[in-house]
């Protein structure tokens, strides 16, 4: 690598100078590495990298020398960081260099006086130690640290403790043999007589080690350190050292999140102290917020200490009261009332924001059974108080806890008082309280829908319409209009349509006379109402659309950007609701406007960009293939948005002086991972996610019309399957994969794939499917995992036999891994049920989490079913690999859903592979027979279906179990509850299975008894697939005059005819068209061949309605 502007000779001279005995050139290089100027820093980095590549030993020794001897604090600080970054070349360094570095670092620890440098130095020592720990290459370190911590020098104690704290994070388990010694060290250094900095370092080290303790015994040994840890915090507060107290609180938060069980024995004391801090008005807000964060983190620590906080006396009431009090820190800001700006948060303090956020988190973590009784006690005095802030706080808190309490709130006894309280506040004298009431109704509509809408629409909708008349407070008007969106999202057209006249007329009045903020709310409301009522909105179209188009055409100045964007959204949703025929003419004019906007230079923060992406997609949904001509305009900016790079900033977590990440910037989300703080600009991610969703939407709507774009879109979206910055981007990319394959397949089928042969579909499948399978392996979210499996299944269906053995093997391997990982997660949850604090509410939450796992199993079952149907017997070697993973799911200790899925997989194998699957009967048939009387009807249905399949294809392999199968099927069919709504599908499948035994296993049964018993169960009416199969079988048996079916002297013929009558009167529901025709022909043959007395006798045994149905069918049709 050559540095620009230098020949080799000059470069060598410069390197020699840098690494020579004079420290000045090297310190100058370090200074340049910290330069704000890109050119100087870039040049320095090139030189530094050359030194590392060619003279690694010399460079590292030079860095350590600078760290030890430089007079410049910045140079020492940077040298400490740079030494740490050279660990990548540590194995290449000579043993002498390695030994020297270790020795010099320990001397630096004792010598360094500047705290900032000491911190970086200690980090470096710990990281070096961790990187070489496995080879036991630093035997001097621990004796050195124990010597420092026992010395009389406070600074040495602090440094040693800092290193211990870091070592715990890097290599905690490896230090467990030293726990007794470390315990003594921490006990000594946490003592009140120690200087504050030493105690804080001791607290950090203790907290770090506590988080590595794996057994209850180890945690027990460290229990007696907790009072000293708490004392470090309280002493800092007593001395008004709040910065120290805040650091201490952050450490307690880490312990609460990682190892909450450590706190259990002294929980009352610890939580009591934290509640006092949270409620102490004299402390800084930041200190109080950290105490609250500790308490909320404990409440959220469900995986490690489920139910622990619910059982703590009075904790929830006290914390809820503190959070309510925080909501009172609100100024009645004039900017809020003027409604000239979007700032609906005007006057809100950081206390208010924390109160809001933590009420939401508290309710979500502890649930409605715990939170609602506390809210019911604390909120009524607030809602009736003279102080508007208290009334406001009550309503805000109600909105915040609604999601977490939704299951309990939706019960009428709980919902009635809530709705009464909120609707009464619609008439409050203070506009901010009225706004909070509307806000609560909006949130309740979202969280408690559709129950709220079904039971209270007659009260809520008129209240919202009334609130739109609040001309004294435009912000209240706007919020009332916007709340219509929340209400209508979970609302059926039947509920909403009767209110349309009043709603639309009111909204149009406001659209003409309201402030801009009100108009924006109106457009949101109109859009949501149209979307919810669909074709019922057609009658208002001619009245509404001119207003919407006027705004789109005329609201062109900067202050009206959002108004115009909302009009775009509203037009596209109204268009979708009323359909292409009604919207078609206006759609062209709207698209002309959008095309002009697309070509214009919009500012980066213009909301129209993202609204336009979504509007185009809705117009495509509405117009279908007629949208095709616009794709060349729509796609380029959409592809550009989908390719946006995440705006990520990474800094040291403890570098408070670094302002690269603005913590007050709401568009930036920050997360801390280890010692790094990562800032991500969410607006960029949201635009990217919207674009990816729109690409998927176009592929769905245009089908083969999307073919020209498939190449480009696949190359963008396939890498995004592993885009871990944003879940929605991954979800959209996952959903698009099968759509891209479908678009190509349809293009070939319809002859529009110009210039390509069908090998392109195989090529695309080879690109997409392995990428999906690989992404499956790394996906962290269970919900996205299920979506990925669903997409893989759809891809298999489309690609079919184009898949090769390598693809199938990688899929099967991944399914095995996914089953194993899911079982591990369920096992870990099962362990939580054994903890002393586990309770019923925790059990409900656990069931919800396990339900997601069952969705994963279900999707794996669907994938395997598709593979089996596609490849049949050649797939069996892969199935055999899966058997050890499937059979455990059949156990009685597994959930009904797991058992059902496992049985369905075998059912598919038995049905699709027929005689080739007989070798698995010994393994699976006993499970099927046992499961045919399972308590769960879905398991029974799958089991008896499988018994029928095995009877059909198993031949002699099924004969040994015929008797047991008949007993089980008879038991199921003859149950008193066999024909209830829950059981009827299982019963229908049992009847079908019985029919297959009659048809294919007749030699092994008493046919004279079993066949008429089967006939007596007909017709089957609920499982329409099985009904068609069974009734075709009946038809075939009658056609061949099956003696056991018809009985002696045709005694069963009336029953056969009555079954035919019922099947025929159901049209094509219970039989195929061909079977219906065959039945009619059979009935005519019977009519012609049966002696009149026998025919009359048969006829008289039918029900009157059956006689009428047959009369109609068999009557001669008038000739044309």
Explain what this protein looks like in three dimensions.
With 1120 residues, the protein is mainly α. It is built from 53 helices and three strands. A hairpin with a 2-residue loop joins strand 2 and strand 3. Mean pLDDT is 88; it is low at 656-663.
Q: Name the helicity range.
A: over 70%
CA-based gyration radius = 37 Å
Which ranges are low-confidence, i.e. pLDDT below 50, for 5 or more consecutive residues?
Answer: 656-663
Give the averaged pLDDT, no decimals: 88
What order do the strands of the largest sheet run in, or round the barrel if closed?
Answer: 1-3-2
Q: List the total number of helices.
A: 53
Overall 3D shape: globular
Beta-strand portion reads under 5%
Largest sheet: 3 strands, antiparallel
Total beta-strand segments: 3
CA-CA gap between termini: 95 Å
Task: Summarize it.
This protein is 71% helix and 2% strand. It is mainly α and 1120 residues long. A hairpin with a 2-residue loop joins strand 2 and strand 3 (676-681).
Keywords:
1120 residues; 71% helix; three-stranded antiparallel beta sheet; 3 strands; mainly alpha; globular
Give me the secondary-structure topology:
Elements: H1 8-18, H2 23-33, H3 38-54, H4 56-69, H5 73-85, H6 95-111, H7 115-131, H8 141-150, H9 154-171, H10 179-189, H11 196-210, H12 216-222, H13 226-238, H14 242-258, H15 267-278, H16 285-300, H17 315-326, H18 334-338, H19 350-366, H20 368-383, H21 388-409, H22 412-425, H23 431-447, H24 451-467, H25 474-489, H26 493-496, H27 500-513, H28 516-533, H29 538-554, H30 561-578, H31 580-599, H32 608-623, H33 631-642, E1 648-652, E2 668-673, E3 676-681, H34 682-702, H35 710-717, H36 727-749, H37 759-778, H38 782-799, H39 805-832, H40 840-871, H41 876-886, H42 896-913, H43 921-931, H44 937-953, H45 962-973, H46 984-1000, H47 1007-1016, H48 1024-1039, H49 1043-1046, H50 1053-1065, H51 1073-1089, H52 1092-1100, H53 1104-1114
Helix pairs in contact: 2-3, 3-4, 4-5, 4-6, 5-7, 6-7, 7-9, 8-9, 9-11, 11-13, 11-14, 13-14, 14-16, 15-16, 15-17, 16-19, 17-19, 17-20, 19-20, 19-21, 20-21, 21-22, 21-23, 22-23, 23-24, 23-25, 24-25, 25-28, 27-28, 28-30, 29-30, 29-31, 30-31, 30-32, 31-32, 32-34, 33-34, 34-36, 35-36, 36-37, ...
Protein name: TOG domain-containing protein
GO cellular component, one term: cytoplasm
Pfam families: HEAT_2, HEAT_EZ, Importin_rep_4, Importin_rep_6, TPR_IMB1, TPR_IPO5
